[in-house]
Amino acid sequence: MDNRSGESPAQERKSGAAGGVDVILAADHLGNAQEVADGIGPGVKVAETADAVARGDQVVFATWFATTKDLLATYRDQLVGKIVIDPSNNIEPDDAGGVRSLNPDGVSAGQQLSQLLPDGARYVKAFGTLPAEALDATTTDAGATPVLFYATDDKKAGLVVADLISAAGFDPVRAGGIDATGRIEVFGDLHPFGGLDGRLLDRREAERLVKG
Ligand SMILES: NC(=O)c1ccc[n+]([C@@H]2O[C@H](COP(=O)([O-])OP(=O)(O)OC[C@H]3O[C@@H](n4cnc5c(N)ncnc54)[C@H](OP(=O)(O)O)[C@@H]3O)[C@@H](O)[C@H]2O)c1
Question: What residue ranges define each of the domains in the chain, with the CATH number in brackets?
Answer without folding.
Answer: 57-211 (3.40.50.720)
